[in-house]
Design brief:
By secondary structure, this protein is an all-alpha fold. The protein has a domain at 41-246 and 263-269. It is built from 14 helices and 2 strands, in the order H-H-H-H-H-H-H-E-E-H-H-H-H-H-H-H. The protein has helices at 2-18, 20-35, 43-68, 76-91, 96-120, 125-143, 154-161, 170-188, 190-200, 202-207, 212-238, 249-259, 271-290, 295-329; strands at residues 163-164, 168-169. The chain has a two-stranded antiparallel ribbon. A hairpin with a 3-residue loop joins strand 1 (163-164) and strand 2 (168-169). Helix 3 (43-68) packs antiparallel against helix 11, helix 4 (76-91) runs antiparallel to helix 5 and helix 12 crosses helix 13 (271-290). The longest helix is centred in the C-terminal third of the chain and has 35 residues, at 295-329. The radius of gyration is 21 Å and the shape is globular. It starts with a helix and ends with a helix. 44% of the residues are buried.
Length: 330
């Protein structure tokens, strides 16, 4: 009987650790309505949350690929600020489609530079991207003179503010479309298998014939591309471009990916978990805003969330390794 109880306990822990983001989301939804005194469950509030998480979701999807390769980039927020300025200035001088293409190319170039320099010279991406982030931050202020770029067209604003059928924010549909593409890319293609193999064991992947240099750099490019898309949506939502617009997105995006179950050390990439993680972060910010909590306390809350997510991730790895050890011993 004791053995049966231990089995049931282990099974429950396994189910929780594999689906912790879903459990956390359910908990947040259950407590949201009473905490916000009935303001949470409304279409206007849900629409607001959907718009707010669109940019962080796109960036988080880029992180899902990058972390899958076993790398890290801390310049994403600065990239978003720079790319938002680039996009806004281009829309004032060129047709919208050209502005979108130019912004995407610039985003890919920023990601490529981060990845190529880190891999070519064997630098720690953590430190390198702190430095390149400062460069992108300086460029953002330099090219716009440190001022806000306003006067954007209604077409630009529609990208971030528009509704489909008068109900669904177009920005969240863009984000979900990106999620679908990355889900297929990571889960159903040879490239995706190489990403996870490289993140899981770089040396073994190289020996098996995988071009790990290309895979690692491509992860940075994927993040740069997603930052560009996020910057386009953010600029449209705000209706202007600000040199510091992306400052907080790095924290939110990494938190969402960590909560979603993609480990920091690579080898796994859970796109569905990232979506749920972004919703959780969005709901937490929304609840705190509706309750009138200081933005400074919100930063503390998000920092604590990341720490808890990392602890859960570490605990998950330890638990599953122990389970495998017990199974092999039997």
């Amino acid at each position: 009987m004791k053995s049966s109880n231990k089995f049931d306990s282990s099974k429950f822990i396994e189910i929780f650790l594999n689906n912790k983001a879903i459990f956390i989301l359910i908990l947040m939804v259950l407590i949201a309505q009473p905490i916000t005194r009935g303001m949470f469950f409304s279409y206007a509030n849900f629409s607001s949350v959907a718009r707010q998480i669109s940019t962080s979701l796109m960036i988080a999807l880029g992180y899902t690929v990058l972390l899958g390769t076993g790398s890290m980039d801390l310049s994403s927020g600065n990239m978003v600020s720079l790319l938002g300025i680039v996009f806004a200035l281009c829309t004032l001088r060129t047709p919208l489609i050209f502005a979108v293409i130019i912004t995407i190319v610039c985003g890919c170039m920023c990601g490529f530079l981060n990845g190529y320099i880190a891999m070519k010279f064997r630098l720690a991406p953590f430190i390198l991207t702190l430095a390149t982030g400062q460069i992108y931050n300086g460029l953002a202020s330099l090219i716009c003179g440190g001022t806000t770029v306003a006067g954007l067209s209604s077409n630009v604003k529609f990208i971030g503010q528009g509704l489909i059928f008068g109900v669904i924010p177009i920005s969240i549909l863009f984000a979900l479309a990106v999620a679908l593409v990355i889900s297929i890319l990571v889960g159903r293609t040879k490239y995706g298998r190489h990403v996870l193999a490289t993140g899981g064991n770089k040396d073994a992947a190289r020996v098996s014939g995988i071009n790990t240099f290309f895979i690692k750099v491509s992860g940075f490019v994927a993040l740069g591309l997603c930052c560009a898309l996020g910057a386009i949506v953010l600029t449209g939502r705000v209706g202007m471009a600000v040199p510091s617009a992306g400052d907080l997105f790095t924290l939110d995006s990494i938190a969402a990916v960590a909560i979603g179950g993609t480990p920091m050390h690579g080898g796994k990439a859970k796109v569905g978990g990232t979506i749920v993680g972004c919703i959780i972060i969005g709901i937490i910010s929304n609840i705190l805003n509706l309750c009138g909590v200081s933005v400074f306390l919100q930063w503390i809350a998000k920092g604590v969330i990341i720490v808890v997510a990392i602890l859960l991730d570490s605990g998950s790895e330890t638990f599953f390794k122990e389970q495998q050890r017990k199974a092999s011993a039997v």
